[in-house]
From TrEMBL:
One of its GO terms (molecular function) is pyridoxal phosphate binding. The active site is at residue 203. This is Aminotransferase DegT. The modification N6-(pyridoxal phosphate)lysine is found at residue 203. It comes from Methyloceanibacter superfactus. InterPro entries: DegT/StrS_aminotransferase, PyrdxlP-dep_Trfase, PyrdxlP-dep_Trfase_major, PyrdxlP-dep_Trfase_small. The lineage of its organism: Bacteria, Pseudomonadati, Pseudomonadota, Alphaproteobacteria, Hyphomicrobiales.
Length: 388
């Protein structure tokens, strides 16, 4: 902020996710971590990768962690480990990013779209039950449920797990947005048969490129995943015992993540304080709901606009005032041209469609000041008064 102009901070365009502020805090440690990797010269599966896997597993309470190249590969590796393929049905929410369904289609399996809970935006168990019945009627083999932890809070894995167990399905948590959150006192990473996550830079725990990880309690499955991420290797890299991928996390990214993990708990607490403050000062919109037994890492702070409000008009007004907003996600997957032919809950996906039409995400990161939050709230309030 320019000391000669006390209004300069209020007038400057805001960052939606201020990674520069975080880097300022840890730059010396990041530089040292990168220098250490360069000095050792072990750029692929260097010692920092195994160190990170152990630290991540300890952080969330999982038994095994397998790092990989990105969050989409994490899903693909799980599907490969479970031998999911043609004729298999994998149940995914429609209101999410395309990577969840993309990984399923990439294996030749069929994504079956499930509706969401209106309050949490996570997978609805009743819709899942209907979708399973529909898949069976269509002649598909129900094999797996991939529940997405949207916006930073985990899905209801106790309820979804009961449905999965009843139908003999593997339960996977797509925790690309929720690593660091909890449900029922347990950390994300230890709530499902497998948990996948992403370290894309904008995630609550992000690296400076692509990265991902898989968590499981099953040591045999963890060994299979380690083989699959390295071309399906066996005793050594020139023995290939299965068809795999080239999906290893770079040592440089592991070193960066180790530094960021050291401050992650502090950043999660800051995100919660910021979310609480938003809930106190925002007016004219529906603020997020977190399930009573859950915590969120607030990957996004997403409000729901009134049905009568034109969202594009609100976004334009906010943008002119220097306040960025983003829509996660404007088109549900069952309405995407590439996926529109796939089966879904026969009762429809109305809650997914409504959410896609009304949600709006506001700036959220651990370094938002109360003054900036006030500016966001005031700008949004003024935008809501704009004529549609």
């Amino acid at each position: 902020m320019d000391a000669s102009n006390p209004q300069s901070e209020a007038l400057a365009p805001l960052a939606f996710n201020d990674l520069a502020a975080q880097q300022d805090r840890i730059k010396d440690r990041i530089d040292a971590a990168i220098a250490d990797v360069l000095a050792r010269g072990q750029y692929i599966l260097g010692p920092q990768v195994a160190e990170l896997e152990g630290a991540l597993a300890k952080f969330c309470g999982a038994t095994h962690c397998v790092a990989c190249a990105n969050g989409t590969d994490a899903l693909s590796l799980v599907l490969m480990a479970e031998d999911i393929g043609a004729g298999d049905a994998v149940f995914v929410p429609s209101f999410t990013f395309v990577a969840t369904a993309e990984a399923v289609s990439g294996r030749g399996a069929t994504p079956v779209f499930v509706d969401i809970d209106a309050a949490t935006y996570n997978m609805d168990d009743a819709s899942l039950g209907r979708a399973i019945d529909a898949a069976k009627t269509a002649g598909l083999r129900p094999r797996m449920v991939i529940a997405v932890d949207l916006y930073g809070q985990p899905a209801d894995y106790e309820t979804l797990g009961a449905v999965a167990l009843e139908n003999g399905l593997t339960l996977v948590a797509d925790a690309a947005q929720s690593f660091g959150a909890t449900m029922g006192g347990k950390g994300v990473g230890a709530l499902a048969d497998y948990t996948t996550t992403s370290f894309f830079p904008a995630k609550p725990l992000g690296c400076y490129g692509d990265g991902g990880a898989i968590f499981t309690e099953d040591g045999t499955k963890a060994d299979i995943l380690r083989s699959l991420r390295f071309h399906g290797k066996g005793r050594h890299k020139y023995e290939n015992v299965r068809v795999g991928l080239n999906s290893r996390l770079d040592t440089l990214q592991a070193a960066i993540l180790l530094v960021k993990l050291d401050i992650f708990a502090d950043e999660i607490a800051a995100r919660q304080e910021i979310a609480t403050r938003y809930g106190e000062i925002l007016r004219g919109v529906e603020t997020p709901v977190v399930a009573p037994s859950a915590t969120s890492v607030w990957a996004q702070y997403t409000v729901r606009l009134p049905e009568s409000i034109d969202r594009e008009t609100v976004q334009t007004a906010c943008g002119k005032a220097g306040v960025p907003t983003v829509v996660y996600y404007p088109i549900p997957l069952h309405q995407q041209p590439a996926y529109a032919q796939h089966p879904c809950d026969p009762a429809g996906l109305g809650r997914s469609e409504e959410a896609a039409a009304r949600v709006l995400s506001l700036p959220m990161h651990p370094y938002l000041t109360p003054e900036i939050q006030t500016r966001v709230a005031q700008t949004l309030a003024a935008a809501l008064q704009e004529p549609a």
